[in-house]
């Protein structure tokens, strides 16, 4: 056996088959075409959904951005897009349950929606997915969380591992955990897709059992290409043993 053959054998032995059957439900993605920075065409959406189904998922809850300055989506726009995707899946004979919620950007416009009683699209029951900018903490972050809770909603903070301000601010992290804000980690973070510091922060949250949900945050085929490398992560088996909420959605 040559050196190259030995290297290939060792590489093959460390490879893990990739599956999301254990997750059951992906609750964060951008698969309604043309309404945010996710899929551009219906054909692309169907291709991605078909591929996600092949990973073993039984359900997808796709979550278009609602962001006042960039993606002015409404429940009506999202529901129409979902209906279009469902019709196409049925036509193609792709049997997977797909629903839609939203990923809300936390700003004064979102706070106004909450306080004025406007409809919020939920992941399930009262669970609402929210995000912030990546660099700086929103000055009204705690006010928004308080208002959501007072109005009967349970916040899910999307991909907290990607927020540089949170990585730097241990007190804020502890404050959010004390408030029992649900943390949703992007599976891609564990592959190093975003950066090594983000990967390490995600691993720390997992080690401390602070993660309530996982999502693919799928936008395009590249996301799923990289996601297949998750099987080689040292955390791939660990996350399958966590007590998470995905399977209840």
UniProtKB/TrEMBL annotation:
Please name the taxonomic classification of the source: Bacteria, Pseudomonadati, Bacteroidota, Cytophagia, Cytophagales
Q: Which organism is it from?
A: Fontibacter flavus
Catalytic class of the enzyme: hydrolase
- One Pfam family, please name it: CpsB_CapC
EC code: 3.1.3.48
Please list the reactions this protein catalyses: O-phospho-L-tyrosyl-[protein] + H2O = L-tyrosyl-[protein] + phosphate
Can you say what this protein is called?
Answer: protein-tyrosine-phosphatase
Which family does the entry's similarity section mention? Belongs to the metallo-dependent hydrolases superfamily. CpsB/CapC family.
Q: Which UniProt keywords apply?
A: Hydrolase
The record's section on InterPro entries has:
Caps_polysacc_synth_CpsB/CapC, Pol/histidinol_Pase-like
């Amino acid at each position: 056996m040559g050196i190259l053959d030995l290297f290939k054998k060792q590489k093959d032995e460390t490879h893990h088959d990739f599956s999301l059957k254990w997750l059951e439900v992906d609750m964060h993605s951008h698969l309604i075409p043309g309404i945010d920075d996710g899929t551009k065409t219906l054909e692309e959406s169907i291709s991605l959904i078909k591929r996600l189904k092949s990973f073993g998922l039984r359900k997808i809850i796709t979550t278009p951005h609602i962001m006042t300055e960039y993606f002015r989506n409404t429940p009506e726009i999202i529901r129409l897009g979902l209906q279009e995707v469902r019709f196409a899946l049925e036509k193609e004979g792709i049997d997977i349950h797909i629903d839609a919620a939203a990923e809300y950007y936390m700003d004064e416009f979102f706070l106004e929606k909450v306080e004025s009683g406007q409809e919020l699209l939920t992941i399930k029951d009262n669970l609402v997915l929210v995000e912030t900018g990546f660099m700086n903490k929103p000055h009204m972050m705690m006010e928004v969380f308080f208002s959501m809770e007072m109005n009967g909603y349970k916040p899910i903070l999307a991909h907290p591992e990607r927020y540089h301000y949170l990585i730097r601010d241990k007190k804020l992290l502890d404050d959010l955990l004390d408030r029992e804000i649900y943390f949703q980690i992007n599976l891609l973070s564990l592959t190093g897709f975003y950066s090594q510091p983000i990967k390490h922060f995600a691993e720390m949250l997992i080690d401390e059992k602070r993660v309530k949900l996982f999502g693919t945050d799928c936008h395009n085929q590249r996301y799923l290409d990289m996601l297949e490398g998750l099987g080689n992560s040292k955390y791939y088996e660990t996350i399958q043993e966590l007590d998470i909420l995905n399977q209840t959605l």
